[in-house]
Sequence to fold (550 residues):
Amino acid sequence: MTGVERLSLNQATTRHLTIEAAVRHCAKAGLRGIGLWRDRVDEVGPERAARLVREAGLTVTSLCRGGFLTAADATDRAAAIADNRRAIEQAAQVGAPVLALVCGGVPDGSRDLRGARAMVADGIAELADDAARHGVKLAIEPLHPMFCADRSVVSTVSQALDMAERISDHVGLMLDAYHVWWDPDLEASIARAGRRIFGFQLSDWVLPLPADVLLGRGHIGDGCIDFRGLDRAVRAAGYDGWTEVEIFNEAVWAAPADQTLRTIVARYRQYVTGP
Amino acid sequence: MTGVERLSLNQATTRHLTIEAAVRHCAKAGLRGIGLWRDRVDEVGPERAARLVREAGLTVTSLCRGGFLTAADATDRAAAIADNRRAIEQAAQVGAPVLALVCGGVPDGSRDLRGARAMVADGIAELADDAARHGVKLAIEPLHPMFCADRSVVSTVSQALDMAERISDHVGLMLDAYHVWWDPDLEASIARAGRRIFGFQLSDWVLPLPADVLLGRGHIGDGCIDFRGLDRAVRAAGYDGWTEVEIFNEAVWAAPADQTLRTIVARYRQYVTGP
Fold:
């Protein structure tokens, strides 16, 4: 037992590495899973991406990402649906069990939050059969409410579950600690989510927020999130899948990948699964 | 009827003005209410502050603010309680019906969000009798979850209500559109809140967020919040009090106060109460 059997690197954490380099670093650090991003898969093609991961002895734990289903007009909406179909296909090609969905924000100039949410639900419903046919689960990722206007009108676990339950058993959620840690209903929502938790991602809430709030995440342990309690709740709900570390942070990207991977493993043992 | 009978200027919007200057601008713009801040009251003393407001024909609609009840140790905690008692006394002295509470974040170095929330509830419970004796209502202000770590572990209307209901009828909430607009449960929570809505504040969610996210609010209509729908929900819940415009924004602060007040009135008519 290495203690990291279920730990996976989300590729966004080592943004400047190709898939080939990323899996090499994972293998060296003892990690057995990697969450891929579509732009990196596109670089080498899905077949080669899958082979690179497999040959390094790793498993693809998710593909990021589909979504952005809140379009201002019908043309943009059709384009979004088509792009999500390609993402589902690519997920199947690389062997990703799960496609993460960042649902999309309020369209420019609109004040119709309810309408935007309906577009998300309708869009996912439209994609659900396609995803099932490909054996890919759709994981709605509730994003922190500070991204509600521009990235995701789905902000809470409970809201994502309401949506998923109305659509299909193939739709569930990607639970990212950074986005949901503040939620007063989190514990109850996770218990309710049960087997609809399709993925689990970690990074820490660190202050101050940077100028681009998208890039403010920290290594586990650098902030104020209770990862141990969260991990316990997620496991108690029945989730037995991978835990990805996904950090968007310029300083982490600038660090040597060896060091980043060492930190991920050490912090995971110290703050998540350790004593 | 001017259409702005219930419109009030929260003093934070004209941060660089003394109370004397602010009430002069309010009167000129046809506003009849002002929400005061403690630092500006301290400058002239509560008696003179009350007289300045009264002589301008205005009403004090709230006092900002108490709270910050999540202390790292007993000494800091006692200091926080004492400061809140002074705030309650000052609210009574200036004739503010309501003291807004920004509850406080997660103490430095802590990961105990639940513990921080308990400290808030205990602190408010400790203050409730004092507030009732002074005839001042305590308004818990749920802050946007992006402030959960550093300013308020109370993030949603429903959470604030749970807390208020357990304490006293003298405890309710300050509903600030900027902080709660994203909440998927907002409509239901507002209906549930009913007469526990003690105050209502407006500013718009504008992108991109500035480097200091505290200062990213916009004039009504500059962003994506559906103020008309929100106002309707709040009135339907039974709230018949003031609506304050409270904007933290360097550009608004740098603008001439005349212009700011004109914009507030025009936007309120256009986006909140108008046809």
The interface with chain A takes residues 106, 110-113, 117, 144-146, 148-150, 155-156, 158-159, 162, 181-185, 205, 207-213, 223-226 of chain B (CB under 8 Å). Residues 252 and 259 of chain B are 9 Å apart (CA to CA). Chain B has one domain: 7-273. The mean pLDDT of chain B is 96.
